[in-house]
Amino acid sequence: MKPTQPLPLSLYIHFPWCLKKCPYCDFNSHEFTGELPEQNYINALLTDLEQDINFFKESRPIKSIFMGGGTPSLFSPDAIHSLLANIKKLIPVNATAEITLEANPSTFENQKFSEFKSAGINRLSIGIQSFNDSLLKNLGRTHNSQMAMNAGAIAHSAGFNNFNLDLMFGLPEGSLKTSLYDIKTAISLQPSHISFYQLTLEPNTYFHKFPPTLPPDDDIFHTQTICQQHLSEYQFQQYEISAYAQLNKQCQHNLNYWTFGDYLGIGAGAHGKISQQAPDTLYRYWKLKNPQHYLNAAGSDKRMGNCTTIATPELPLEYLMNQLRLTQGFHLSDYQNKTGLPSSSLYPALQQCIDLELLTLNQNHVRCTPQGWNFIDRILEQFFVD
Fold it and tell me: What CA–CA distances, in Å, run from 138 to 145, 227, 277, 322?
């Protein structure tokens, strides 16, 4: 069995520089000093994309673009405009494509973000994390609560009616009271999307090496539950583990990740996933992480950090670890179409999860049970291949 048609394609662009490395951040980000190598990096991104397009025998259009980091908004609007214009010369981009720029509240200026809008950006993702100055200081953020408030106002004045606010809970010295205040303040800024996720102490971060004192697990779970109820009351519907959107405002780029779509990844440390003839040929790859090494390797195969082929027995886990993040679950026909495997390849692990009351199967539609939703890692363990 083969997929009936090519999977949707997105483009991720990584900008590795930021003002300051946050103690909880495990992304490929590097504090910069001096001047950004702006033009050199834009040139490297474009040659990177030109080479990645060779993965395809036929042209495939881009349905979404996401510029993440680091802090992409450190780059000038002119640089972003040039990047987008040249991307469209290399590969078709749908006229309705969602084009997102991640931004730090410290970098918000009225004129600058109006120019980002003119450059072709139609969605922002703003890293607020909290509206509490004390909590922001604990997180090592470079902005304060007033800057966070201003960011929402500037986004609106610049013409963005589609933007996300990132918020975190389970913070050092955080509580239900501080999280509810953050949620209510965020809603008052009228975003279309809110990401509300728990602080985790990831390996290779300062917080992992020197763990802060976090609230008890029961308090964190209670905070999450109450805040989710408040978001729902204001028409922010949860559609993914940590994502809440108003009607028809889900992040299209992330949805493509979670529904097993393909994506190109350009930039230092960027990851990509490409299906050519699944289940036989499915690649995951990533680029060199060090920004200078990446720049030095521009235009050559040395820009690749690694490229691996996903073995057929691993495809069920690859599919589920993304798809089960969504509240809607998935239909068995979608699994067959996107992996090229028969639904029987999910068994016996699927039946084991049903027997454990972690998953339900109704009219060929698979969903997490309420218990399963809280124990997705346990579900995925059933599909792990030694």
Answer: 13, 21, 48, 31
* Residue 261 φ then ψ, to 5°: -75, 170
- The class level of CATH for 9-256 reads alpha beta
Q: What is the C-alpha separation between 188 and 208, in angstroms, rounded?
A: 33
Of the candidates 202, 151, 185, the residue with the CA atom closest to the CA atom of residue 22 = 202
Whether pTM > 0.85 for this model: the answer is: yes
Identify each DSSP E strand in 154-241 by its residue range.
Answer: 163-169, 193-198, 237-240
SS3 246: coil
CB atoms within 10 A of CB 187: 17
Neighbouring residues of 349: CB distance < 8 A, sequence distance ≥ 6? 316, 382, 383
Residue 43 dihedral angles phi and psi, to the nearest 5°:
-60, -40
Tokens found for residue 13? 């662009």
pLDDT one-digit tens code per residue, 242-286: 999 999 999 999 999 999 999 999 999 999 999 876 556 788 999
Three-point CA angle 292, 296, 299, nearest 5°: 130
List pLDDT tens digits, range 138-190: 999 999 999 999 999 999 999 999 999 999 999 999 999 999 999 999 999 99
Neighbours of 306 (CB within 10 A): 9
Q: Alpha carbon 219 to chain centroid distance?
A: 27
C-beta of residue 111 within 8 angstroms of C-beta of residue 159: no
In whole angstroms, how far apart are CA 119 and each of 72, 79, 267?
14, 9, 20
Return the domain boundaries, the chain: 9-256, 314-382
Angle at 81 between CA 76 and CA 83, to 5 degrees: 95
CATH number for the domain whose boundaries are 314-382: 1.10.10.10
Q: Which of 261, 241, 259, 246 is nearest to 327 (CA)?
A: 241
